[in-house]
Amino acid sequence: MVANTIKFLLNNELVKIENLDPNTTVLQYLREERFKSGTKEGCASGDCGACTVVLAELDPKKTGQLIYKSINSCITFVGNLHGKQLITVEDLKEGAQLHHAQQTIVDNHGSQCGFCTPGFVMSSFALHKQNNTPNRAEVLEALAGNLCRCTGYRSIIEAAITSSESAAEDSFAKHYQATVTALTALKKLSAPALTGNSHNYIAPKNIDELATELTNEPKSTLVAGGTDLALSVTQNLATIDKLVYVGNVAELTTIEETETEIIIGSALPYSEFIDTLHHYYPDLGEMIERIGSKQVRNTGTLGGNVGNASPIGDMPPALIALGATMTLHVQGQERTILVEDYFVDYKKTVLKPSEFIKSIQIPKPTAGQTLKLYKISKRIDDDISAVLAAFFIERKVEQKDGQQVQEITNVRLAFGGMAAIPKRAPATEAILLGNSLTKALVAQAKEALTTDFQPMSDVRASDKYRMTVAQNLIEKCYLELQSANAREVIETRVVNYA
Fold it and tell me: Angle at CA 198, nearest 5°, toward 196 and 201?
């Protein structure tokens, strides 16, 4: 059963949308349909944060609780609002009383031209809804996706860091239970749909509905966070005939742990699994913090990053290095493949017609295994990689000639940005496997890398730069491992001495 309508709360108003082109973004809807001009368009690509709004959703882990997330409205399709509360800057204040997130900007002189201010306010609002006493690191993470050209960031950071613990209760807190009740009722509705200008959108609620929809319409375009797909509409002025939103599919939005692996649903946003991955692989958690901005990580998904098949996607090299697998589904039939076998050529994959990514399985680490990740980009936050290197090394301690050495028993080196697809470096791996890391061995590995890749030049980096930095990252990994080994020896000696 499909209802040809989208329903959500706009601030505290229940809204129903019919007969609207599903290629419409949330930003366009707010400004052109509802004439709410507080939300700005700065880049139409999810980079500047001027368009930031907040979504409140039911917490799947805590009954009767809401999660507040900042998102980029310029790259979010309007259909994705179904069953959620959309909060905009216009409704923060009550009467003449500014909201805490607004008043602190005023008190700290955090606005000059004002164009970026609504976005900063909404990012701060979302942060304080989850944490009313944020520290500086949490504020920097929340605001990293918001850019200001004229004021500078000190005053804005000071505004966001100001505690809201004793702030007056806002209208959203006053209507909290009513919002939970309304969203719970919307969640029980049948799968939503939207049609306009002969374009269609549908949001299946379970994997069977999704499989059937794709079998009937195999040329449909899947959308989860849409953080890359939407740019084809906003930047290239394309139109998508049939959008199938997977963010409501229950089986695709879960995370599960077994004794040996972490199973992540393909439509689960980064913000929902980053802590788990950081626990097992600290380098991976830190790298995910550099994927886009907080707004992007609140909507972007692992399945989208892999399925997009971009040669500069950040997650595929890490997953390939870890030996991760992915489960593909088509009309009740499933198969599991290695992530590295998914990519065929530039933007080409092994997906069959109507097939989609169900989940990705990441092995848990065992003793002697190390994952090192290096992302090279022009800025730390909210930027695309020029090169991403992922090194998985497994070593065992042996005695040779009376000395203790660590022999490499397993190694996978994967790179993004070095070829038409994310891929491993087999010649380099062959040099390392079965040997102990030494400076001489690293020099051989760096030379072998030139036979594994012939990178291209583009706007992000030249071919020479890419090769040079990739080679240097192998040496960087070696030096860090040597440093870690030295610390282990020192700590062991200290313990033994004590």
Answer: 60
Determine the residue type at 180: V
Q: What pLDDT band is residue 382 in, cutting at 50, 70 and 90?
A: confident
Give the chain's largest Cα–Cα span. Answer: 81
DSSP class per residue in 206-220: SHHHHHHHHHH-TTP
List, as one string, the DSSP characters of 181-197.
HHHHHHHTSPEEEEEET
Task: Report helix, strand or coil for 414.
Answer: strand
* Cross-sheet strand order for the sheet of 261-265: 255-257, 261-265, 356-363, 325-330, 333-338
Cα(296)–Cα(299) distance, integer angstroms? 6
CA dist 273 and 471 (Å) reads 31
**Do residues 280 and 369 make contact, with C-beta atoms less than 8 angstroms apart?**
no
Would you say residue 377 has pLDDT above 50?
A: yes
In angstroms, the CA 105 to CA 123 distance is 12
Answer yes or no: pTM beyond 0.85: yes
Q: Which is it for strands 242-245 and 199-202: parallel, antiparallel or unpaired?
A: parallel
Please tell me the distance from the alpha carbon of residue 54 to that of residue 72, in angstroms, as a whole number. 9
Tokens describing residue 402: 């009376």
